[in-house]
Amino acid sequence: MTLPTPKQFLDRYTDLFFFSPTLGIYDMTHITSYGSGWGHDASANRPTGYLSQQEYNGPFKRALRFALDPARHGDYGSVFRFGDASPLRDTFRGEPFYRNGVIRAFLGKGSPDEIADLIRLAIAIGRIGTSSDAAGGRPAHAALRDYVRTFVSLDCNGLSGNYYGINPETSIEAYARPGRRRRDPHEVRTGDCLVTVTPAGRYKHIALIDAFTPGAGRSAQMSIAEWGQAGDEDKHYSTFTRDIVQGPNAQFGLGFRSGENFRYIFAPPANAQSDPRGYGLDGDETR
């Protein structure tokens, strides 16, 4: 298994590069929003989730259909390409796109590549811009940064799941497996995960260990990457020193206290892989 460091992977979101379909050069944007899901789910800290749902299921999907085939503008499959009937055939030259990847990017669960694909499509079909989109509709935003801020977000499962190359909707609880607990600070490695558990046993948050250096006694210095709030990279990457001790749940091994909660350290999931696009891309759309 060859993975980037958590910091290297985090950087792909905070400074997201993509090849602009209109400029023909690499461009960059920044993912800063937090949360996931459709609807008005205030508990998900994403009050604009319903906007993403409306954009994907309405004008985005309609413009995409027209761009794929202006004469038919029918539905598209789980894998789609811009063929000879499309005015964008020379822009993408038969490149495959994945419907579920586009949906994940709108849902706050996208990998950097999936988000880049969404942005490239949104630009090409006119959902970002100042003139009519491919279906003749009004663009969602004139500026890329505004489109990204409104419709693209991420949460802790999304960051961690995509880092490990597993389903980014994997529950936080699934990462906390007694067989992968760390028993000694010297076992901790770059790429391990931190699972935050409340006193009531609720699985609250997951983060990634980027660096870990045991010190004198029980202390250790660590750097972690996480996505638990909105903001620039300073909200998602931090370095600090903590006492590493056995947690309240003996099955979960070592970690450290964080307020009233405890953050346990676990080795990566057994099915972690080096390809962050290696899960379910050809599956049926479920939303």
Architecture blueprint of SSEs:
Layout: H1 6-14, E1 16-19, E2 26-29, E3 33-34, H2 49-68, E4 79-80, H3 89-92, E5 97-98, H4 99-107, H5 112-124, H6 144-151, E6 153-154, H7 156-164, E7 193-197, E8 203-214, E9 219-225, E10 237-243, E11 245-246, E12 254-258, E13 261-266
Helix content: 25-40%
Global structural class: alpha+beta
Largest sheet: 7 strands, antiparallel
Strand content: 15-25%
Strand and helix order = HEEEHEHEHHHEHEEEEEEE
Radius of gyration: 21 Å
Give the count of helical stretches.
Answer: 7
Terminal CA distance reads: 31 Å
Mean pLDDT: 90
Number of strands: 13
Cα shape: elongated
Question: What would you note in describing this structure?
Answer:
The protein has 287 residues and is of the alpha+beta class. The chain has two domains: 31-154, no CATH class; 171-266, no CATH class. The protein is 25% helix and 21% strand. The chain is built from seven helices and 13 strands. It has helices at residues 6-14, 49-68, 89-92, 99-107, 112-124, 144-151, 156-164, and strands at residues 16-19, 26-29, 33-34, 79-80, 97-98, 153-154, 193-197, 203-214, 219-225, 237-243, 245-246, 254-258, 261-266. A seven-stranded antiparallel β-sheet has the order 10-9-8-7-13-12-11. Strands 1-2 form a two-stranded antiparallel ribbon. Strand 11 (245-246) and strand 12 form a beta hairpin. Helix 4 crosses helix 5. Mean pLDDT is 90; it is low at 275-287.
